[in-house]
What we know:
30% helix; extended; 7-stranded mixed sheet
Amino acid sequence: xxLAQYTQKDYYNSKNQGYYQxxxxxxxxxxxxxxxxxxxxxxxxxxxxxxxxxxQRTLQELSYDTINNVKSIEVEIPPSMSIPLPHDFVNYVRVxxxxxxxxxxxLKPSQNTSAPTPYLQDNDYxxxxxxxxxxxxxxxxxxxxxxxxxKNNSYNTADASDITYLEEGYGYNVDYGKRYGIxxxxxxxxxxxxxxxxxxxxxxxxxxxxxxxxxxxxxxGLNTDEDMQVHKFAEEAMYxxxxxxxxxxxxxxPEYQINRLKKEKKAAMRSAKLRLANxxxxxxxxxxxxxxxxxxx
Length: 297
């Protein structure tokens, strides 16, 4: 039976372009039960709920470092200089600012401040508590407020502590991040950001006020039914990982069977990573042409 779900006409007139690259998690579970579970199969018996659990856990793990399940959102920074993290956010990949020509200018996480949890205090500096004896928490830390109100790479010359950030022999008004010989980790004249994970907020320095920000982030692939799909290059890795998870949880399974499944899973994962790396020979050839360039000292 053919795998296409649409005629070519319906495909190009629908909103499901690109669907053929993927296999849904329901199809993965059904295919696994047919191919791996039975009296004459490697797994004698397994419930669909058990297979579903291991399929979802495998999809999570593959999304982090194999399938490369990266999403992106584009938002305008409000006057508050803070925006909520995406609803299915797990970790960020890249944060950029869009310039007038449509290019993305990379923003770096601030190395000189953070978003601590603000404890409320009275006039005598004693902590304030609620009726249950828990410390009262403020809406936003003072560190975050001052960070958002200050230009990213401009340091207050009246504060002597800022001198420690300047190299010896430089004056007070040198912009941090633009000097020759700077640490490459800080060699970025663009603005910075901090992520307050407990509050689910990302804050920016004031240089990107009213500008467009693009956040690329990793999700776990389990947010919605539409997200729960696997690229066909990683389909075999899903089957091997599910089989290993189910067999590892069963009692009285010979160790050689577990080791065999571990080797098969490792090989399938490696194959999936190579396929999904999308190494194009033409692009690689173009990059390698740079080896013939002379390096001037």
